[in-house]
Amino acid sequence: MTEKEIISAAYYHESLYKDDINHFHSEYEMMFIIDGELDVTVNDKIYHVVPGDILLFSNLELHRIHVSKTPYHRYILRLNVSATELALSNVDLISILKNHTSTFNHCISLCAVMDDAIILFKKIITEFDNPPSQFTRELLGAYLKELLILIHRCSDKETTLPVDRTMNTQIYLIQKYLDNNYSKQINIKMLADDNYMSHSYLTHTFKLHTGYSPKQYLTLVRLNNSTHLLRTTAKTIIDIALECGFSDINNYIKCFKSKFGMTPKEYKKHFKLEG
Length: 275
Known about the structure:
Jelly Rolls; 49% helix; six-stranded antiparallel sheet
């Protein structure tokens, strides 16, 4: 891992902007709006976003952007999932990026701390643009921690962090197990037993903390990893399905189309044409 793999940072400004299609990123994404207005759809939620607002997207969330007022200026951070979690170490801070429940607010106003937020984004971009040196990763991680603390202090804290911090840590460790073992055949009941929980309690508590049941979360992780293989390899659809933990090719195609609105074959063709 290079020193800069934790963060991709940039400032974008356009006088015209073509609306996004429904899409997602394999990284966590933070978008801080400086100028312009937009309507953003995340899953089934719609937000009207104005200057001073910051948007938070996990790596599992589809989103679509419609710009209603230009010029459109914003800072964007894309954060490598594993490197970011390693750098942050604090589960509560990680949860702001990773776990978005039904009550989570993806759009948070930083107007009260606008100058501080801009300074932090500029520091991150400057560090990202400069040649890597000793402690680059540590400094980027420190800036990111400061930014997340700033966001948390400006947010409705009930919608950003779970109440039960101890259980949040245990659920996070279960998530990490699913993140790292999605290619294997995983039995959720056995996973519950291994963590000294009943199946129903794990399902309820996991959804309370993450927004998904363990089965839903595992399926999303598998689907998102399959998109990387579809875009970057010549592997067959069947081989990709099996490599990502789907034992049934028809179920894989059905789940894929349900999330992305196209089949894996259509998705692969779409990105081939774009390339």
